Amino acid sequence: MGRKTFLAFCLFAPWLTLAQWGCTDPQANNFDPNAILNDGSCQYNTTNYSMTLVQNLNDLLQENSGLVRVGNYLYTVNDSGGENLIYELDTLGNLLRSIEVQGATNIDWEALTSNSTHLFIGDFGNNNGNRQDLCLYRVIKSELIQDTVQAEKLSFYWSDQIDFTPSPNATDFDCEAFIASEDSIRLFTKNWNNLGSNVYQLPNYWTDTIPAQRIDSFFVNGLITDACQSPQGNQVYLLGYKNNGNNFYTSFIWNLWDFNGSHLFSGNKRRIEIGNVLTVSQTESIALSSSHQGFVSAEKVVSVITIAPKLFSFDFNQYFTYAASQEIISNPPYLIIYHPAIYAHEVKINSSFK
Over the chain, what HEC string results? Predict the structure, then answer.
């Protein structure tokens, strides 16, 4: 050990001795009042929440898949077979107008997200697992005031997919969810086989066709249909549903927070059950209006009964009542190497679905 390294270790050693890792969320079952470093171990009772119905949506949006809030408006798209249109809604769910997207083709538009400058359309629906034309389209947000916008195509492929044999609803390379920041884009797969979700990363802009690199995995116990993040980037929400037999689906939202950097599953993970197909239809999209408040949209169900497409609102502030009075230190990167339990935890997360 060099002299500088030894001195640095001596400086941090007393603090490391006193610091305690554990669950730092007072609302968790295993909250440790002595813990000041969150190790992602928090456990919660089953959480049930009833969303508020804003209204049934216009039947033009019966295949809505993707929702994002920009300013005072919500934007959505229809999925496979839909037109090259972005639909503008007010926050009461009223359809205001449609925006034609030029330079784009709707193979299977499944999600919308945005950063400070651009809105992104995810054309990566892949129920059969055999698509080799996956792409995103990006549109300048300030141009959404127009009735026609120009899209730029960003093509990609899954870095670890080598088999393109069609496997209807039996693939781990389907995708309906992504989030964008100023420097990167992260995609969450809809794993039909193991009910997990793999996280892949792309830059926020590129040319040619590039691989999306797999960086993480998590057992979500369902099928992820959308994702969103708070403006500060410290809250991520994953929307999904699970087939509990005979196509009777129940819907859920995973709330992820207090995580370490880009390791979204390293912090707190709370699953919130939000209803079944009879009460919320088939939930497809989620968007935030603040860190803990937002909207969920659902597409039309036509089966034994017909259920209209819907827009709901939610407010999860009750799960964060302690935040204003608590100061929590979250996973300092330079400490992870000194804590074997955390290292093992991260290895386990990243090797869950190989």
Answer: CCHHHHHHHHHHHHHHHHCCEECCCCCCCCCCCCCCEECCCCCCCCEECCCEEEEECCHHHCCEEEEEEECCEEEEEECCCCCCEEEEECCCCCEEEEEEEECCCCCCCCEEEECCCEEEEEECCCCCCCCCCCEEEEEEHHHHHCCEEECEEEEEEECCCCCCCCCCCCCCCCEEEEEECCCEEEEEECCCCCCEEEEEEEECCCCCEEEEEEEEEEECCCEEEEEEECCCCCEEEEEEEEECCCCCEEEEEEEEECCECCECCCCEEEEEEEEEHHHHCEEEEEEECCCCEEEEEEECEECCCEECCEEEEEECHHHHCCCCCCCCECCCHHHHHHCHHHHHHHHHHHCCCC
In tens digits, the chain (354 residues) has pLDDT values of 555 544 444 444 444 445 689 999 999 999 999 998 999 999 999 999 999 999 999 999 999 999 999 999 999 999 998 899 999 999 999 999 999 999 999 999 999 999 999 999 999 999 999 999 999 999 999 999 999 999 999 999 999 999 999 999 999 999 999 999 999 999 999 999 999 999 999 999 999 999 999 999 999 999 999 999 998 889 999 999 999 887 789 999 999 999 988 889 999 999 999 999 999 999 999 999 999 999 999 999 998 889 999 999 999 999 987 543 343 334 444 333 333 333 333 333 333 443
